[in-house]
Design goal:
With 434 residues, the chain is an alpha/beta fold. Helix content is 45%, strand content 14%.
Amino acid sequence: MTYPEMIRAKRDGEALSAADWQAFVAGISSGDASDAQVAAMAMACYFQDLDTTERVAVTLAMRDSGQVLDWSEVPCNGPVVDKHSTGGVGDLVSLVLGPLVAACGGYVPMIAGRGLAHTGGTVDKLEAIAGYNPHPSPEDFQRIVREVGVAITGQTQALAPADRRLYALRDVTATVEQVGLITASILSKKLAAGLEHLVMDIKVGNGAFMTTADKGRTLAQAICDVGTGSGMPTTALLTRMDAPLARAAGNAVEVEEAWSLLQGEVRSEPLKAVTWALSAELLVSSGLSPDLAAAGEQLDRAWASGAAAAKFEQMVAAMGGDVHAPLPSAPVRRVIPAPAGHGVVAAVDTRRVGLAVVGLGGGRTRPGAPIDPSVGLTDLRFPGESMEAGLGTVHARTEQQAEAAIAAVQAAYTTAESPQAAGDPVIERIASKW
């Protein structure tokens, strides 16, 4: 079929064959399919979805659109594992988990993304570190993983190039939330990276693309089934995103909080809990720990000894960066006054908080747009906490931007007279039914 015929068939609810998907994905990676056609197919998929067979076909076609890493050529002395998040606000888990798992004997070749809509991107964050090169050659990437135990890189034309283009167009055409395309996008990169085990962090709540636990379960089950069915054992945790996960939201400010956590300073208990839970899943599934209790103890030892921080420092150096160099700093800093001036935080519209960072210049509204790594939010208050000292701090380029961000964050917070119990940041675990 031609591209228009494929789009029409999908629009009308038909299932495309594996050969059709291979042809369409080839058109995405070669450029033969136009931006309009790729966006139209994404919208058709959004309304008609993909069945399981199609999800596998799209995933494998995107995996095979570029190089697939073979770790037997670069032997590691442990399992090759990774984690992926569906994205949230203040979600800097990857920056901590990679070094932490590496310090426990895992090898983590993490291919990360850039900011998507109101959520931050791991690659954007790491680029705030002076000299950090998120695009090494595949050969250098494998060498760094083997020598250090972890490397976090961005997508390249070598690995799953079709997904890179599709991902950028989904970002600006309101088709991010489509389960089949999310599944294929995530797993094509992970399979291209040659992973042996994967854990998914499925964010749910008002700051997540999956706003409810039911939607999160649907996505988690799809990813676990397709991942495990493709020979990569995959589990998932549903975690809360009804408040920023870290105290910081932005790029340089999140790097600073991640580095502080690796060195022993816990500013956000939910952040630590989610990071440890995901890490433990990887240690158990890959055989590095016999059970979750033992995995937790192993992670605590790697953290307390400084081994995890050392891995982060080694990774940054291997990628051309300097973790001790000053991070970009915005010239304007303003405390965000609480609207009522008293009481506690009752709830947070987390998506609005993320959009406030985008408004400051810390995120994108179109593919390829530059971002300002210095801007963002810090000292954010969580539900149940006092607002006496304000809702947080704005880091802005101008006073005008600071004022707009203050108003946006204030509008995102609602208040209460007394604290309410916060839910467990980890909601439930999901495994493949295959």
